[in-house]
Design goal:
Two copies of one chain form a homodimer. By secondary structure, the first copy, chain A, is mainly alpha-helical. Chain A has six helices and two strands, in the order H-H-H-H-E-E-H-H. The structure holds a DNA duplex. Chains A, B: This is MarR family transcriptional regulator.
DNA sequence: GGCTGAAGATAAGCCACGTTATCATAACCG
DNA sequence: CGGTTATGATAACGTGGCTTATCTTCAGCC
C-alpha cells in the first residue's frame, strides 16, 4: 500500500480528512438511495422551512443553479414541495413533506456516528484546540478571499 | 449575510474550512488556465515520475478513471507524456515534460501562500494540536471505513 | 405609465468524480 | 499448452459543482 507521503502539511492533512468525511457520508447516503448533497438540502430545510432557492443556496454556500437541480430530484421523490410565493411570482418557496422524515432521521444518526467515530479517544483539550485552530484558519482565509475579490474588482 | 449557524460541530467546521481551501485553490489554478485536480497530478508526478495511472490514482486516492481523464487533458497540453511500458502492454507510464515546469512553480507558490494565509497569527502549539487531532481523526475514520467495508463484504 | 435595472430561476456547457461494464493483456494453474 | 482469473485502461452514464447567458418578474424612477 503506497501510503501518502508524510503529511507534514497542515492544509493537505486538512483536506484529506475532509475528503474522508465526505466520502464516508456519501457512501452512507447512497446506501439509503440518496446523496450527501440531497441530505444537506433536507437538513437545511428542516431548520429553515419556506426558503427560496436562492436563500437556500446562500446558506449552503453553493450557486442557485446547483440547488435548483437538487430540488428537482427531491421534489420528484416527493420529499420537497415547491410552492409559489403569493407575493412574488418569480420565486418558489421550499417546504419539506412527510416523505422526508425517514431521511432526516438517518441524517441525524449518521452525524452522531461520524462524530463519535472521528473523535474516539481524542482528548477534549485537543478537540478544543483543533476547533480553535480551524476557526482561526477559516477567518484568515475568508479575509484573504475578500481582499482577493476586492483586488480583482479594482 | 446569512451566515452559517454556530459551527459547534467539529466535522462541519472541518469540511467548511476544507471547502474554503479547495475553492481558493481552484480559483488560483483557473487563473492560470488549469484546475486544482490537474495541479495535483503534476505535483505527484514530480515526486514519482514514471507511475502508471493506477498507481497515481492510489496515491491521489481517487479512481483510475478520474486520473485517466485528467491525464488526457494534460497530455493534450503537452505537460505529460504517456509512454508504453516495455514489459506490460496494458499500462502507460506517465512522465512530466518540460512544459509542466511553469505550472509546478506556480503550484509551489500557491501552497506557500495558502499556508501562510491560513495560519497567520496561529500559535505553533495550536497548529501542532490541530495536526495531531486531524491525524487521529484520519486514523479513526480510516479504521471505521475498513471495518465497514469488511462488514459489507461479509 | 413606461423604461431601465435588479433579482429569482433555469438552460447550456465545462470539469471532476463515482459506479458499472468492456476490452485487451498478464498471470496463474491444472 | 489452454483456460480461468486478475489487472490496467477506458467507455457509458449519473451526480454535483462552476460560469455565463436567458427569461420572467419585480422595483424604482423619470
Amino acid at each position: 500500500m503506497p501510503n501518502s507521503p508524510p503529511p507534514d502539511d497542515l492544509l493537505i492533512l486538512l483536506t484529506d480528512v475532509a475528503r474522508l468525511v465526505r466520502t464516508l457520508a456519501d457512501r452512507r447516503a447512497r446506501a439509503h438511495g440518496m446523496t450527501r448533497a440531497q441530505w444537506m438540502i433536507l437538513a437545511r430545510l428542516r431548520r429553515h422551512d419556506g426558503l427560496t432557492q436562492r436563500e437556500l443556496a446562500e446558506l449552503l454556500e453553493v450557486e442557485p443553479i446547483t440547488v435548483g437541480r437538487l430540488v428537482d430530484r427531491l421534489a420528484a421523490r416527493g420529499m420537497i414541495e415547491r410552492r409559489a410565493d403569493p407575493a412574488d411570482r418569480r420565486c418558489w418557496r421550499l417546504h419539506l413533506r412527510p416523505e422526508a422524515a425517514l431521511a432526516l432521521a438517518e441524517i441525524d444518526a449518521a452525524r452522531r456516528a461520524f462524530d463519535a467515530a472521528a473523535t474516539r479517544g481524542l482528548p477534549e483539550a485537543q478537540r478544543a484546540a483543533a476547533m480553535a485552530a480551524l476557526l482561526a484558519m477559516k477567518t484568515n482565509l475568508l479575509a484573504g478571499a475578500e481582499s482577493d475579490a476586492a483586488g480583482a474588482a479594482a
